[in-house]
């Protein structure tokens, strides 16, 4: 049987990769992809705990489905925003989007 | 009165009626807006007179008490934080509520002529500020006190920042910076008090943390308090720390030297009706807080530092007095005279006997009336000639005899002429000081001469002498403009001739403060 | 009648209130309001005086609670003693005369009603001061008369000189009042009351230390110095002549300036208990008497001469009181009120006619102004101590008291001052009324409502002195309760007559015989006197200028040091802000990184204990 720690390790690695992507990648699309990665890392954790947790029950799995739904919606909105930005500014490079400075 | 809405709530929130009414008036109907502005401001005034007349001066505790549960935050381990909505007045706060109502209604009348734009917003903010004003004196717990305190601060920021003179924004930010700093210190002190001394044992052995003033006073001053057993006792370090923090916080508001520089800018730039409120009532919150909290919470420490207070008072008295003498602008003289006059409040508080305390309260009321009168008259002048510089003024008595007469009367009252309120406050304060500290008292009486010198110099410069060019074609105050002058002078004379009207209601409460000090 | 004494100040108060409310509508009718109220007061005061004259009459006192502070109750009330019954009579009478006189003198002034308003305020305050049974009430009205005096001095508000004179009067007397305030406050905590009776009782029973008595007595005397224009606070009184002349007669000659003397007389038992205090009073009085008289010798402004004469005569009264001559001091206060008011009113009559106050521009007025000339002569003779007139008796009594008290130097000073008094009065008389006119005004005698008060006062100036023979001394001291009568050798009387005649003769030799006016700059001693010993200049350099300079230094301090500190803290916050704002580069990813670093740090710090331990 695969131990809980293995699941958690995969989750942690995926999360870290995703976080690295969010913080470092220049392209907006890649950033969105990285966010997906982080969300999925969380999903793995949720499922693992639902199976192996102290009080293992179905809630974790149900929550995962929620998360996937929300993530899909979020990606859709995120992409829509990126398209809007691209139409306005001609770029989706994160470094050029610094209007918060002002 | 425990379960129904009481007089104090009505006084505090009746200005909101004005906000409601104004909401239905289009903003270009200036006449209607002003009418509502003035009329609604008189509701708290009338109610406060009702309160004054039914006030029982034999009781030294709180009256007109209202106490409702408001916010309760459960904590772990059988404890909770409780903020109540509790109002009440005693002999110390009752006169201040009445004073606020008088000054606020006069300020509303003053605004009719002196505010020249965006009346609707002005009066809405003005009404909100009034809520803060009455609330701050009636609040019976620190949380409520702080909320009302902040209401006055924020509304005043906008009132100065929008309707002031040409450097109004700068002044408004200065105001916010200083007072915001004061508020921050105040908040920290309140939190420390809440954590260290604000608890009592509720039903079922729950520990209830509260900011109720009476509870805090009880816990701080009864070492045998059963709640000491709860293990949160108050160390001396905390006591001294909070004492000085409060002194600084209220010292900024009063303002004590060297925290005074904000009022120079703010008063100069603020529209006259707001200067009236500022110097008449808002600065008094500082003195009130000093009395209510420093003296209420830490009577022994206050006693130890009474000499410090007296010296601070003397510094204010002399510093303001000397600087007022060299100003070249009438408005600045009035501002510095405010600094000088609050020195007397502090002196009275430092005297630590019933004469001194009475003198301090009298000075709070007297200066509240006189300072607003001065700012009002300066505003009336400015409205006509658009300057307050001595070099461009003079001989006002010829073209504006009524206004000049009132100005002169105000000056005489302010320098302590008998028959008017200034005398009573100065006399009682100095008499109180003489009991235990004759030397310091003798030094401080010199302040009377300084006051005479600068007031006569400035007032005579404006009213006497050959009539200045700018003043030759102006008309005297119209009847609407006369109302605040007559009313304020009327109260000044009333308090001066029949001081028992004020001294009796405050007597019992001040005696309670004195017994706490143990003298 | 005695229980209704409160009516006396009430009438002027009513008149004051009426005139404040309706003065503008009444115009010159305001005079009638003033005169009627004063007449009522005078009648009541007369009734009180007669009732109190009776042999079995008792002092009357009534008190009401005014203010309760802690366990102390402050009272207000009124009392009638011989001293204040007499003062009520004097004040109401002179005030009535001045009210009537002013109707003519102020005719045509556009602020006519205001003048009467102020006069009523003054009379009310002065009368209330007189009937005060305690020091607090006395202090209250003491300040109020000062304020009324200030208002009246500055009556011609558009004149810069009047403005500064009013200011000076208020400030200088305020300095004196400070002494009084400190004195009564100290006394209050020592004796526990402001009541005269209570204070005297405590002093008599030896409850108060002698040193403390001296201190408080001298502090109270400082108040009297300010109000009565004694050296060194005398400078305001001559300047106060900027006010309308009737005011000078009422306030700055007959009544208010005598309040200082009255106060010392009223608190006489306190002074008597301290030899040092008495000596101070006598010395200040004696010095002022000769000092002011010497300045009066050379002044050219008719009112200023009279003003210095007032200062000098008040010094006389103080000298008498300080030499234990209670009767003499009060007696002189009484007679002086009449002849000095008279002299001022005649001066007003002269000024009214020639529109100048400079005696070098007068001369020969006697021909057209016969009544004025006659009453002025009576006044001048009375003040010079001409035998048979009022001033003779009182001055004589003063000299005797001083001699009896053993202050030999002061006695001779007083005598020289008497010579000077006679001299400057007749210098005035000769320069104003005799000789050839040195003016080109069309001179008329003043109207009846001005001359009649002068005539009444001149009769009093002649006859007021004779009350000495009707048991005045015994009566005023309340049958010897306050002080004892003094008797001196007869030769003093002859000496004082010689002094009077000497002064008059000298004046005649210098001014009456050839009636020449010296021109050219004064020199030497004359210059020193003419410039009033440069006291004003001294105060200006020693007090006023340093204070102003200090003020400007402080202004600089306030602006740059305190303001600088504020700027410094602003700069400091800004500097911190600059550093912080570097991080705000608008890069979302940078923000995210910082957030995550923060989160990690937080987690590590929270769990560090468990990880390590």
From TrEMBL, chain A:
Alphabetized UniProt keyword annotations: Cell membrane, Membrane, NAD, Quinone, Translocase, Transmembrane, Transmembrane helix, Transport
Keyword Acetylation belongs to the record: no
One of the protein's GO biological processes: ATP synthesis coupled electron transport
Location(s), subcellular: Cell membrane; Membrane
UniProt xrefs under HAMAP family: NDH1_NuoK
Keyword Transcription regulation: no
Predominant localisation class: membrane
Transmembrane segments: 6-23, 30-50, 62-86
Family: Belongs to the complex I subunit 4L family.
InterPro entries xref list: NADH_UbQ_OxRdtase_chain4L/K, NUOK/Mnh_C1-like
Top-rank taxon: Bacteria
Record's catalysed reaction(s): a quinone + NADH + 5 H(+)(in) = a quinol + NAD(+) + 4 H(+)(out)
UniProt name for this protein: NADH-quinone oxidoreductase subunit K
The protein's Enzyme Commission number: 7.1.1.-
Pfam families the UniProt entry points to: Oxidored_q2
Molecular function in Gene Ontology: NADH dehydrogenase (quinone) (non-electrogenic) activity; quinone binding
Class of the enzyme per the UniProt entry, highest EC level: translocase
GO cellular component: a single term: NADH dehydrogenase complex
Assembly behavior: NDH-1 is composed of 14 different subunits. Subunits NuoA, H, J, K, L, M, N constitute the membrane sector of the complex.
Function: NDH-1 shuttles electrons from NADH, via FMN and iron-sulfur (Fe-S) centers, to quinones in the respiratory chain. The immediate electron acceptor for the enzyme in this species is believed to be a menaquinone. Couples the redox reaction to proton translocation (for every two electrons transferred, four hydrogen ions are translocated across the cytoplasmic membrane), and thus conserves the redox energy in a proton gradient.
Membrane topology listed for this record: Multi-pass membrane protein
UniProtKB/TrEMBL annotation, chain B:
Keyword NAD attached: yes
Chief location: membrane
Keywords attached to this entry: Membrane, NAD, Translocase, Transmembrane, Transmembrane helix
Domain NADH:ubiquinone oxidoreductase chain 4 N-terminal: 78-131
GO BP terms: ATP synthesis coupled electron transport; electron transport coupled proton transport
Cellular location(s): Cell membrane; Membrane
A Pfam family recorded for this sequence: Oxidored_q5_N
CC annotations in GO: plasma membrane
Topology class, membrane: Multi-pass membrane protein
The keyword NAD is annotated on this UniProt entry: yes
Boundaries of every NADH:quinone oxidoreductase/Mrp antiporter transmembrane domain copy: 139-451
GO molecular function, one term: ubiquinone binding
Transmembrane domains' residue ranges: 6-25, 32-52, 92-115, 122-139, 145-165, 177-200, 240-264, 276-293, 305-326, 333-352, 364-385, 406-433, 439-460, 480-501
PANTHER family the UniProt entry points to: NADH-UBIQUINONE OXIDOREDUCTASE CHAIN 4
Family to which this protein belongs: Belongs to the complex I subunit 4 family.
Full protein name: NADH-quinone oxidoreductase subunit M
Species of origin: Vulcanibacillus modesticaldus
Upper taxonomic lineage: Bacteria, Bacillati, Bacillota, Bacilli, Bacillales
TrEMBL record, chain C:
Gene Ontology MF term list: NADH dehydrogenase (ubiquinone) activity; NADH dehydrogenase activity
Cellular localisation: Cell membrane; Membrane
Keyword Transmembrane helix: yes
InterPro entries (alphabetical): NADHpl_OxRdtase_5_subgr (IPR018393), ND/Mrp_TM (IPR001750), NU5C-like (IPR003945), Proton_antipo_N (IPR001516)
NADH-Ubiquinone oxidoreductase (complex I) chain 5 N-terminal domain boundaries: 66-116
Keywords linked to the UniProt accession: Membrane, Transmembrane, Transmembrane helix
GO cellular component terms, semicolon-separated: plasma membrane
Record-level GO BP terms: ATP synthesis coupled electron transport; electron transport coupled proton transport
Pfam entry (one): Proton_antipo_N
Record's bilayer topology term: Multi-pass membrane protein
Domain of life according to the entry: Bacteria
Domain spans labelled NADH:quinone oxidoreductase/Mrp antiporter transmembrane: 132-421
UniProt main location, coarse: membrane
Record bears the keyword NADP: no
Residue intervals passing through the bilayer: 6-23, 30-50, 83-102, 114-133, 139-158, 170-190, 210-226, 247-265, 277-298, 305-331, 337-354, 374-394, 409-430, 451-471, 491-512, 588-608
Similarity-based family: Belongs to the CPA3 antiporters (TC 2.A.63) subunit A family.
PANTHER family registered for this protein in UniProt: NADH-UBIQUINONE OXIDOREDUCTASE CHAIN 5 (PTHR42829:SF2)
Protein name, per record: NADH-quinone oxidoreductase subunit L
Naturally occurring in which organism (per UniProt): Vulcanibacillus modesticaldus
């Amino acid at each position: 049987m695969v131990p809980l720690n293995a699941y958690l390790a995969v989750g942690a690695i995926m999360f870290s990769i995703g976080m690295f992507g969010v913080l470092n990648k220049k392209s907006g699309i890649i950033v969105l992809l990285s966010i997906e990665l982080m969300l999925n890392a969380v999903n793995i954790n949720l499922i693992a705990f639902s199976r192996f947790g102290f009080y293992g029950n179905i809630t974790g799995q149900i929550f995962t489905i929620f998360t996937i739904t929300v993530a899909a919606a979020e990606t859709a909105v995120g992409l829509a925003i990126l398209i809007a930005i691209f139409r306005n500014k001609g770029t989706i490079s994160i470094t050029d989007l610094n209007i918060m400075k002002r | 009165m425990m379960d129904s809405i009481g007089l104090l709530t009505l006084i505090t929130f009746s200005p909101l009626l004005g906000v409601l009414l104004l909401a239905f008036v289009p903003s270009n109907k200036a006449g209607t807006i002003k009418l509502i502005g003035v009329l609604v401001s008189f509701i708290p005034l009338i109610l406060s007179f009702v309160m004054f007349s039914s006030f029982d001066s034999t009781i030294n505790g709180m009256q007109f008490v209202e106490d409702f549960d408001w916010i309760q935050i459960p904590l772990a381990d059988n404890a909770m934080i409780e903020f109540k909505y509790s109002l009440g007045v005693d002999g110390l706060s009752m006169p201040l509520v009445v004073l606020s109502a008088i000054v606020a209604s006069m300020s509303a009348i003053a605004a009719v002529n002196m505010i020249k734009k965006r009346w609707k917003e002005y009066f809405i903010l003005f009404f909100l500020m009034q809520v803060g004003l009455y609330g701050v004196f009636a609040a019976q717990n620190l949380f409520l006190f702080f909320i009302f305190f902040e209401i006055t601060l924020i509304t005043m920021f906008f009132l100065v920042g929008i309707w002031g003179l040409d450097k109004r924004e700068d002044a408004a930010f200065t105001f916010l910076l200083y007072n915001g700093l004061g508020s921050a210190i105040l908040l920290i002190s309140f939190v420390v008090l809440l954590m260290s001394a604000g608890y009592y044992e509720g039903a079922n052995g729950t520990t209830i943390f509260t900011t109720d003033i009476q509870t805090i006073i009880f816990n701080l001053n009864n070492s045998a308090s059963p709640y000491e057993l709860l293990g949160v006792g108050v160390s001396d370090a905390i006591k001294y720390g909070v004492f000085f923090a409060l002194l600084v916080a209220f010292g900024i508001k009063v303002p004590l030297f060297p925290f005074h520089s904000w009022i120079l800018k703010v008063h100069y730039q603020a529209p006259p009706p707001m200067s009236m409120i500022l110097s008449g009532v808002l600065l008094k919150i500082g003195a009130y807080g000093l009395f209510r909290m420093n003296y209420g919470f830490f009577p022994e420490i206050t006693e130890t530092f009474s000499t410090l207070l007296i010296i601070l008072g003397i510094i204010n008295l002399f510093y303001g007095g000397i600087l007022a003498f060299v100003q070249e602008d009438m408005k600045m003289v009035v501002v510095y005279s405010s600094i000088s006059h609050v020195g007397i409040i502090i002196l009275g508080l430092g005297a630590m006997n019933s004469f001194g305390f009475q003198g301090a309260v009298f000075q709070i009321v007297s200066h509240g009336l006189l300072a607003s009168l001065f700012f009002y008259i300066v505003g009336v002048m400015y409205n006509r000639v658009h300057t307050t510089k001595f070099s461009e003024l003079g001989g006002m008595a010829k073209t504006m005899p009524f206004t000049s007469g009132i100005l002169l009367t105000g000056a005489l009252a302010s320098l302590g002429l008998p028959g008017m309120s200034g005398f009573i406050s100065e006399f009682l304060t100095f008499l109180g000081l003489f009991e235990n500290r004759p030397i310091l008292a003798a030094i401080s009486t010199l302040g009377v001469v300084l006051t005479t010198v600068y007031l006569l110099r400035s007032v005579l410069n404006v009213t006497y002498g050959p009539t200045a060019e700018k003043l030759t074609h102006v008309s005297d105050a119209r009847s609407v403009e006369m109302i605040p002058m007559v009313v304020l002078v009327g109260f000044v004379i009333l308090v001066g001739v029949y001081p028992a009207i004020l001294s009796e209601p405050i007597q019992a409460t001040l005696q309670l403060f004195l017994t706490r000090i143990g003298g | 009648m005695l229980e209704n004494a409160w009516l006396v100040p009430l009438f002027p108060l009513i008149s004051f209130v009426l005139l404040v409310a309706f003065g503008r509508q009444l115009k010159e009718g305001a005079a009638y309001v003033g005169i009627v109220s004063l007449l009522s007061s005078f009648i009541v005061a007369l009734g009180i005086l007669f009732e109190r004259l009776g042999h079995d009459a008792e002092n009357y006192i009534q008190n009401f609670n005014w203010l309760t502070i802690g366990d102390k109750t402050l009272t207000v009330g009124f009392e009638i003693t011989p001293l204040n019954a007499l003062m009520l009579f004097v004040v109401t009478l002179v005030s009535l005369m001045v009210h009537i006189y002013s109707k003519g003198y102020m005719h045509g002034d556009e602020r006519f009603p205001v003048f009467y308003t102020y006069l009523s305020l003054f009379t009310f305050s002065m009368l209330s001061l007189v009937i005060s049974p305690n020091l607090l009430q006395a202090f209250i009205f003491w300040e109020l008369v000062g304020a009324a005096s200030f208002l009246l001095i500055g009556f011609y508000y558009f004149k810069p000189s009047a403005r500064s004179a009013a200011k000076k009067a208020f400030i200088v007397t305020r300095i004196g009042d400070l002494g009084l305030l400190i004195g009564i406050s100290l006394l209050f905590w020592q004796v526990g009351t402001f009541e005269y009776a209570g204070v005297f009782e405590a002093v008599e029973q030896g409850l108060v230390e002698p040193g403390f008595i001296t201190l408080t007595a001298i502090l109270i005397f400082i108040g009297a110095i300010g109000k009565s224009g004694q050296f060194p606070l005398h400078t305001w009184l001559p300047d106060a002549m900027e006010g309308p002349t009737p005011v000078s007669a009422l306030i700055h000659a007959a009544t208010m300036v005598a309040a200082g003397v009255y106060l010392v007389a009223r608190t006489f038992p306190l002074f008597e208990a301290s030899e040092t205090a008495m000596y101070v009073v006598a010395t200040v009085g004696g010095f002022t008497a000769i000092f002011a008289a010497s300045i009066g010798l050379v002044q050219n402004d008719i009112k200023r001469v009279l003003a210095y004469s007032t200062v000098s005569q008040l010094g006389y009264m103080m000298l008498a009181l300080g030499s234990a001559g209670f009767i003499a001091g009060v007696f002189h206060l009484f007679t002086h009120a009449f002849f000095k008011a008279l002299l001022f009113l005649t001066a007003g009559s002269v000024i009214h006619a020639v529109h100048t106050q400079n005696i070098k521009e007068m001369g020969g007025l006697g021909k057209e102004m016969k009544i004025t000339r006659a009453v002025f002569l009576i006044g001048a003779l009375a003040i010079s101590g001409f035998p048979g007139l009022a001033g003779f008796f009182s001055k004589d009594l003063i000299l005797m008291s001083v001699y009896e008290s053993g202050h030999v130097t002061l006695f001779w000073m007083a005598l020289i001052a008497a010579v000077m008094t006679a001299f400057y009065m007749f210098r005035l008389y000769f320069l104003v009324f005799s000789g050839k006119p040195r003016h080109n005004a069309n001179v008329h005698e003043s109207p009846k409502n001005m001359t009649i008060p002068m005539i009444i006062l001149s009769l009093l100036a002649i006859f007021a002195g004779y009350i000495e023979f009707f048991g005045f001394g015994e009566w005023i001291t309340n049958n010897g309760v306050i002080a004892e009568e003094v008797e001196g050798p007869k030769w003093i009387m002859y000496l004082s007559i010689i002094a009077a005649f000497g002064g008059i003769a000298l004046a005649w030799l210098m001014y009456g015989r050839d009636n020449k006016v010296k021109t050219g700059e004064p020199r030497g001693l004359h210059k020193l006197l003419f410039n009033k010993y440069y006291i004003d200049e001294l105060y200006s350099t020693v007090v006023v200028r340093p204070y102003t300079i200090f003020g400007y230094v402080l202004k600089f301090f306030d602006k740059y040091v305190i303001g600088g500190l504020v700027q410094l803290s602003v700069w400091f916050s800004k500097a911190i802000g600059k550093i912080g704002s570097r991080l705000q580069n608008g890069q979302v990813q940078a923000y995210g990184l910082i957030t995550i670093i923060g989160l990690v740090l937080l987690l590590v710090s929270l769990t560090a204990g468990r990880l390590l331990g």
